[in-house]
Amino acid sequence: MSGYGAPGGPVIHDPMSLPVDDNVNNYTFCVELKGSEWFLQKGKMIAYYGSMEFNGIGHGRLDRLVRTSFHSPLHASDWVVAQGSGKMLLADRAFDVNSYDLDEGNLTIRSGNLLAFQPSLALKQSIVPGFLTLIGTGKFVAASNGPVVFMEPPIRVDPQALVGWADCPSPCHHYDHGYMTGVMGGLRAMTGLGGASGEEHQFEFVGAGTVLLQSTEILMAEQATGAVPQQAGVPGAGGVPGQHGQQAGAPRLPGQLGDLQRRFGL
Amino acid sequence: MFRLQGSKVLAVDVTGDAVKAKNGSMVAYDGQMAFKKLSGGGEGIRGMVTRRLTGEQMTVMEVKGHGTCWFADRASEINLVALQGDKLYVESSNLLATDAGLRTGTTFTGLRGASQGNGLFTTTVEGHGQAAIMSDGPAVVLRVSAQYPLTVDPGAYIAHQGNVRQSLQSGVTFRTFLGEGGGEAFQMRFEGDGLVYVQPSERNTIAGDV
Fold first, then answer.
1. Model pTM?
2. What is the predicted pLDDT for the residue at A244?
3. Peptide bond connecting A154 to the previous residue in cis, omega within 30 degrees of 0
4. Cα–Cα distance measured from residue A252 to residue A255, given in angstroms and rounded to the nearest whole number
5. A78: which of A124, A264, B108, B113 is 20 to 30 A away, CA to CA?
6. Is B80 in Cβ contact with A13 (below 8 Å)?
7. What is the DSSP string of B121-142?
8. CA-CA-CA-CA dihedral for B71, A93, B190, A7, to nearest 10
9. Tens digit of pLDDT for each residue in A167-202?
């Protein structure tokens, strides 16, 4: 074939040597299309051999596919469908990428970490804001900052290290409040003065399943997840007034003591 | 003699000869070394003017001496390229070091550069010897041959070598303007015979958003 690339130099790939639906290296994943389709997050394709077409989810010809495997209208603008034949390389900001197989299973993952999935899986929005759930049988590709670690519940994990979870019920928040009781404790938690460990808040998982963690606490840039329908009872919708949980992210006005105020029932 | 120490540090053994490297990329050296700044990429007055005009500026130093010199830049992954009389096309920002015997120059790339957001010109390296190029994450080397043309996202492209024709492919349709684009509005197509280096990360390009 061609004379470029000396022996002993870097590995040179061509369509024959590229793996089928597997990692090329830790940071690049190769997908083979044979007239089939894959859902991709926009802009994660870095190169391909063969002939392929990338169409937005709203493309008319994809109606049937979208009806069966894409159930998140709010993410529609972030996803495309790759169709055609050939081999395609996927990568994301030089993060580790890995593929996972689901067999009649379900897996929930942080929306920014999911790169691609086979249409035999159905994508739905998790009721936990910012997460997506995949249900069915098939392969998907996800990115993580550092290699992924698999853990078994019961486990408490750091919110920034959580990538996703499979086959187990949703996590709940866990707060270590034991040492924060009383006025001094409240001040400590609010200001960090006098020692806050930064680990007072965790996600707690119980039941049977697997929890996926990344080996760093640096979050990947969050993918916009859109808003959920403004309905009472929908988490994250802000539908019901007077719920404490909704105010977590809101800026606190001066004079408002927030958690401290609530602690003393003021 | 170029060799990699880990994937992010380049070690060059010099025995009286010289190596051209990105200014300030030396991290350590052993033995006797002299560092000389080459203005305008070491291509004389003409090269200097061309680089100024084309925006493909690079500040290069010449390292000469006896011993070993180590180079690194912002913990980028380093890839070695062996050149046997062929031409390497690389963005000046991705070029770390070349053998002093290699000729560097500037060439017009056409519209491809515009979509990539890094100008209409690119740097060429030509001759016999070794060059070190940088990438965000380890580069994947893909072969282009007559029966297997390759299409690459402009944001992930870092370099190519050999006898390769490149063209810009546009997937811009009316859907793009409705916000329903395929996310890969501009692609670079490579045909011919050679190698293309791709990094597992995308620079920000205008094409990335449409």
1. 0.80
2. 43
3. yes
4. 9
5. B113
6. no
7. EEEEEEEEEEEEEEESSPPEEE
8. 50
9. 877 778 887 765 556 666 566 656 655 555 666 678
B175:A92 CB<8 A = no
What's the domain range around B60? 2-209
Q: Among all chains, which residue has been given the structure tokens 């590995």? A: A11
Interatomic CA distance for residues B182 and B170, integer angstroms: 11
Residue A247 burial (CB count, 10 A)? 14
So what's the ipTM on this one?
0.81
Q: What is the CATH number of the domain that holds B62?
A: 3.60.160.10
- Cα separations (Å) of A219 from A22, A109, A113, A161, B197? 25, 13, 10, 7, 28
- How many structural domains comprise chain B? 1
B200 contact residues in A (CB cutoff 8 A) = 25, 27-28, 46, 91-92, 94, 97
**Contacts of residue A49 in chain B, CB cutoff 8 Å?**
142, 148-151
Residues 6+ apart with CB under 8 A from B62: B18, B19, B20, B35, B36, B37, B38, B42, B100
CA distance A117 to A75: 14
Give how far Cα B204 sits from Cα of A44, A220, B77, Å.
12, 16, 19
Cβ-Cβ contacts under 8 Å, A54 against chain B: 171, 182-184
For residue B67, give both structure tokens: 């011993």
- Longest CA span, chain A: 79
How many Cβ contacts (< 8 angstroms) between chains A and B?
140
CA distance B94 to B139: 12
Smallest Cβ distance to A46: which of B149, B153, B175?
A: B153
DSSP state letter for A124: E
A202: nearest Cα among A211, A210, A193: A211
What tens digit of pLDDT does each residue of B108-146 get? 766 554 445 455 678 889 999 999 999 999 999 999 999
DSSP assignment letter at A128: S
Could you tell me if A85 and A51 are in contact, meaning their C-beta atoms sit under 8 angstroms apart? yes
